[in-house]
Amino acid sequence: MTETLPDAAPLSFEDALEQFDPVLGFEVHVELNTATKMFSAAPNAFGDEPNTNVSPVCLGLPGALPVVNEQAVESAIRLGLALNCDIAESCRFARKQYFYPDTPKNWQTSQYDEPIAHDGWLDVELDDGEIFRVEIERAHMEEDAGKLTHQGGSGRIQGADSSLVDYNRAGVPLIEIVTKPIVGAGSRAPEIARAYVSAIRDVVKALDISDARMERGNVRCDANVSLMPKDGDAFGTRSETKNVNSMRAVEHAVTFEIRRHAGVLAAGGSIVQETRHWKEETRTTSSGRPKSDADDYRYFPEPDLVPIVSSPAWIEQLRTTLPEPPAERRRRLRESWGYSDAEFRDVVAAGLLDEIEETVGSGASPATARKWWMGEISRLANARDVEPTALGVQPATIIELAGLIDEGRINDKIARQVLEFHLDGEGSPAEIVSARGLEVVSDDGALTAAVEKAMDENPDVVEKVAAGKLKAIGALIGPVMKETQGQADAGKVREIVMEKLGVS
């Protein structure tokens, strides 16, 4: 079954919103950072050799019986509380029946009609500071599937020659957070999508229940989009873009699906309820498989697991372990650091709030921490095609660089070079400065010679400075810096120029 008029061109985002109102829904999967898997003692670890972190339970071998991971249950309750959910005093697991190569049992142990947490909400802050409340339908426990690696072609399932399966991830504890339908988003639908997933990641990081690294799949979002005509009240047929694993991609996927739906509907076609694959390189989606409804999965209670009973006392004890809510933390940090709203939004959007907080906590000024993380560290990360956090820069390194600048031993330009040498493994900043002879040149004799040469080569500039146009001194500092390979003390150069020309 395919949608009619499948080649209908997407409308522009603006034209789509003139005719339709978007309805959103998100299913965010959070991998927990427990030591072992959801139903077995197999290690829960990332990056190990394929098919080494497995057990008979993970592989679905006959006679293997599951045992619930208590820490995963605690994490689920704490997350439910942080999302303002009601916690079920009794809930149970169910079997979700479907065949896929990375699900060796042919069913997924999940929760269906009795989730551990339900009926919550999360307030998300948009770029301009507006708060948008997202209603949470449920947060339930389940296990992850294995991982398929597609061989040939682009590395995606489309066009692959074959696929390899790694069961290391099979059975990793998951919490799936499902929103209620989100209406009234209008033109801010893509922004709300990004802000919501970002807020979920902030919550699970604050709770320390997940590594929350989206590039590793610790947090993944299935983004549901449908459209209804203006002034209508019936939701349209939805599509579900699967496993989107970055904030930017969630925003772009929602934007494209709104445009695609609108193009099909405006041309008289109909939307098929299906899953879609996100293509980052083109910022488009492609058809996956028809989307099943709940009854197609033939849920029934898991016969090998007893219900989970959460006493009120246990729930309240876990409530006492909740950290400061991320929104309150952001407001506190913004006020404490004295950043402007725009500066703080940039920090949050860059995902560097934790790193800057740690750096400030280690003794750096807020301005210094922001300067380095948002400036040179981000630039180097972009040049090396990695996330800034992947460079491994420690707060102590930033503090040491700032100290060398404050002492006058190096300037900003040299400090940037030193950081790059540090990342290449040449040692601490102080060791690099000494080993490479990078200290600022402040010796009067050496600087005077360089200044005199610059003045001889730029008589027009000398004339302007002598006439009182002191800003022109910058045109002499440049040649001096070139002569000293960027190591001149700019302040000292300025003093020497002014002294020679008798200006003040």
Automatic annotation (TrEMBL):
Enzyme Commission number, as recorded: 6.3.5.-
PROSITE patterns: GATB
Catalytic activity: L-glutamyl-tRNA(Gln) + L-glutamine + ATP + H2O = L-glutaminyl-tRNA(Gln) + L-glutamate + ADP + phosphate + H(+); L-aspartyl-tRNA(Asn) + L-glutamine + ATP + H2O = L-asparaginyl-tRNA(Asn) + L-glutamate + ADP + phosphate + 2 H(+)
A Pfam cross-reference name: GatB_Yqey
Disordered: annotated segments: 276-296
SMART domains: GatB_Yqey
Keywords: ATP-binding, Ligase, Nucleotide-binding, Protein biosynthesis
Limits of the Asn/Gln amidotransferase domain: 354-501
Entry-linked Gene3D superfamilies: 1.10.10.410
Keyword hit for Plastid: no
Entry function: Allows the formation of correctly charged Asn-tRNA(Asn) or Gln-tRNA(Gln) through the transamidation of misacylated Asp-tRNA(Asn) or Glu-tRNA(Gln) in organisms which lack either or both of asparaginyl-tRNA or glutaminyl-tRNA synthetases. The reaction takes place in the presence of glutamine and ATP through an activated phospho-Asp-tRNA(Asn) or phospho-Glu-tRNA(Gln).
PANTHER family, alphabetized: GLUTAMYL-TRNA GLN AMIDOTRANSFERASE SUBUNIT B MITOCHONDRIAL AND PROKARYOTIC PET112-RELATED, GLUTAMYL-TRNA(GLN) AMIDOTRANSFERASE SUBUNIT B, MITOCHONDRIAL
Family, as annotated: Belongs to the GatB/GatE family. GatB subfamily.
Subunit structure, as described in the record: Heterotrimer of A, B and C subunits.
Protein name listed in UniProt: Aspartyl/glutamyl-tRNA(Asn/Gln) amidotransferase subunit B
The species this protein was found in: Nesterenkonia halobia
